[in-house]
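Next comes a single protein record:
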Amino acid sequence: MGDFQGFDLVRVRELAGHLDSVAGSIVPMHRRLSQILEAAAADMAPQKASTSPELQPLVDHPGVPVATGGIPISRTYGIPTGYLPGPRTQGEALAGGPLPGSVDPFLRRTAADILARCDRLEQVRKAAPPSVELDAGALLAADPVNLNAVPKPNAGEQAVSTWWAGLAPAQREQYLYLKPEALQTLRGLPTDVLQRATQLAYFKVVPYKTSSHESSGGGKLSIFFAELGQGFALRTEQMNDGTYRVTMISNAQEGLKLDEKLKLGGAMKFEIGDTWSFKSKAEAEKLQKDLSEAFRLHTAQYLSPAGWLWAKARLPQVLERIGQPKIKTRTVNAEANAAANITGVTPGIKFSSNLSAITSTMDPLRPTETLSREFTVEPSLARGKVLQIEGSKVLGGAIQVVRDKNNPDPNTNITTVRLIQTVEGKLGGSFSGELGDKKAGLSGSYREGGNDTHVVTVNVPISTTPEEQTAARKWLKTPMTSMLSRPAVPSDPPAPTGDLFSRLAHTRGQVSAVSYKGHASELKLGGKLTIEGIPIGLEGTVTGKHDRITDQRYLGAPDPVTGRRTFVPVN
């Protein structure tokens, strides 16, 4: 990130804090002095109570210019020149109320203005490459620009050229480093500026969710050691480009519970997910209502003849409104778990592996097929029996290869290789209980807790050249565990003799690092019954979870001098 020479930003922020602190204490003194001068002026009329230019505004009438229109800032704080804006006339000072109170908002506005300029200066510093030297004084003196005030892409070349020419150099730096994705669409900018903005914007644009909400439910039947289950989920996600995605998921599960005491088990799960994409939240909410209605109609047709007739009349209309999904996902999941109770403490571990096939028509002209391989490891620890405190750490990773669906040749159709690494920490509590005996009984549990998740995504586009296609296939043959054993963020430039895929990841890879904070709850109700020695169990589950983004960064463009790439906060 860019750096400043001979500039102490910390002391500038201290100055703003001092101004804000003194604002509250100066008002009583100012009020008392004003009262004394006003009383003296009344006694000495028509003579003036004071001829001092510093005190004169206290007894002058509104509209008289104030002698000092701004507050000079000492060079001690690193600001080379200039004054910060202040009220120019006594009328402006009095506009907010009695004169003594005018000092307080003025100083507070000045402090807030300093902090806003410092914040913008920090944003530019973090977004600029490390080798770029920034003029901190000029950046601080320049008003923070409105980053959304960029001309529209269809603005004429002359209008764009005039707009750019009217900006100070420090204002141009704000737009270039903080809003390159808007500049790259403009015709009329200097060629070097347009090229630089295009490069910076390329690395900044990485799709990810900013928040999500999911509700799900399901049931499970167990006979002896076998378990059969079925469930559904409805997920809504807001993406960083402002769009919304709604996903409907249905799944079926077959599993074994090998040892009740040691809680050994395993399962195979088959999952189908359909995703629709919308530009507005209202459109997404409308689809959710249609999906809910379709589910009710589908269920009603099996309950009664009247329900069948109602579903036959209404269901085709609802399905037509729903339309075809943009993304279709088919997943096979294998899971194994083990846990043991040791004097009130229950350590456990769960392994799972997914294989997913994803078909996307987000770009109708270039549909894609993605094969995703994923695995997770989740060690956990719980303490207590009826009331439990639970904690776990989920370590996961996925390797995805995206292929052009229009090209059937597997040797030339790779478009993207994607690596996703996830670390999730969970902490929560649960309450559970049972009624009955070994032959028959009821059970239930409620679990609630929070989680913190960090996701790093490395997206490497691959061209159609034989060299890059071969490099991608070679990299994909590397054992998955070795690829995900450490973060594969291409920060440092690889050696000239390094493999081609590593060079592509560094020069072309788009990388995002996103953190989320979430909350989840789960309610389970079950029953068991033994009939002629055959144990039968039923269990129903309802869950809900949501998360929101807490930090979002992307790996910036390679530094033009050192070649190193650093993470940049998303503004």
